[in-house]
């Protein structure tokens, strides 16, 4: 560019539950001065709205009929990501066990995905310096032209141990089963399933510390920017 300013860079980070997408994406965005978008939080927010408004989660037609109603707003500062529904801060409630157990059913409804995908694209294109967007279908569907695509993986055992530590739960086996069940639902849905894009760089984080994963992704972004 003429004034020497860096071009905005779009980074897509996908992968199954508990692979470190949120922790990594937030830190990479903060280090590089980019915006950050947690797309899982958006699907959780619309699920929270459905539950709060008594919509039958087992009825995709009922979900589709109201998918356009809630106004979901995501704040994209990696130091302070926010999420509101119709003006209410839902950052806490969207992490409830009830929302976690229902989000895969809601996110499988095509009308929900169309609505949320539109929001995601609009936030990505308006991020002045660029953005790190994390989810399940970012590299394959939402932002197929992203400058860098990363697909994080980790063994179910490592992911369950991490998640149990976070939730202060001692039942690692139950956590492992819940993760596997959610991944299976997210991977088998018809519309934009959880999948690795053909041109994504796969990073197995099982034996890596969070700091090592962050460093790896920052290096990948810097290499892209340098045209390597
Ligand atoms: N490489 C790592 N080593 C150890 N712990 C990690 C690593 N990466 C992430 N964690 C921890 O694992 C937990 C899950 O990480 P995180 O929420 O970032 O995963 P996620 O892929 O975004 O999960 P989900 O899709 O379910 O939201 C967090 O407590 C985080 O601190
Ligand atoms: N791009 C995405 C992101 C998320 N989902 C759905 O949301 C659920 C919650 O995601 P978390 O990352 O917050 O755990 C996830 O299980 C998916 O059902 C999605 O479909 N697409």
UniProtKB/TrEMBL annotation:
The keyword Chaperone does not apply. Residues 179-189 have a biased composition (Basic and acidic residues). It comes from the Bacteria. It comes from Streptomyces pseudovenezuelae. GO terms for molecular function: ATP binding; dCMP kinase activity. The keyword Kinase applies. ATP binds at residues 15-23. It catalyses: dCMP + ATP = dCDP + ADP; CMP + ATP = CDP + ADP. It is an enzyme of class 2 (transferase). One of its GO terms (cellular component) is cytosol. Belongs to the cytidylate kinase family. Type 1 subfamily. GO terms for biological process: nucleobase-containing small molecule interconversion; pyrimidine nucleotide metabolic process. Its EC number is 2.7.4.25. Keywords: ATP-binding, Cytoplasm, Kinase, Nucleotide-binding, Transferase. Residues 11-222 form the Cytidylate kinase domain. This is Cytidylate kinase. Residues 179-198 are annotated as: Disordered. It is found in: Cytoplasm.
């Amino acid at each position: 560019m003429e004034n020497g300013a860096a071009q905005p860079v779009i980074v897509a980070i996908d992968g199954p539950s508990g692979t470190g997408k949120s922790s990594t994406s937030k830190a990479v965005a903060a280090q590089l001065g980019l915006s950050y978008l947690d797309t899982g939080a958006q699907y959780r927010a619309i699920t929270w709205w459905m539950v709060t408004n008594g919509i039958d989660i087992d009825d995709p037609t009922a979900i589709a009929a109201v998918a356009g109603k809630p106004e979901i707003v995501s704040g994209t500062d990696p130091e302070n990501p926010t999420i509101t529904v119709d003006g209410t801060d839902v950052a806490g409630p969207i992490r409830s066990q009830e929302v976690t157990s229902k989000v895969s059913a809601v996110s499988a409804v095509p009308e929900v995905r169309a609505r949320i995908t539109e929001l995601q694209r609009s936030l990505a294109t308006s991020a002045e310096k660029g953005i790190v967007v994390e989810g399940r279908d970012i590299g394959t569907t939402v932002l197929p032209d992203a400058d860098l695509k990363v697909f994080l993986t980790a063994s179910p055992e490592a992911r369950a141990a991490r998640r149990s530590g976070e939730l202060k739960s001692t039942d690692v086996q139950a956590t492992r089963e819940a993760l596997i069940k959610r991944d299976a639902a997210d991977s088998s849905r018809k519309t934009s399933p959880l999948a690795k894009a053909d041109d994504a760089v796969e990073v197995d984080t099982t034996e890596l510390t969070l700091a090592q994963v962050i460093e790896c992704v920052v290096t990948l972004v810097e290499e892209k920017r340098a045209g390597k």
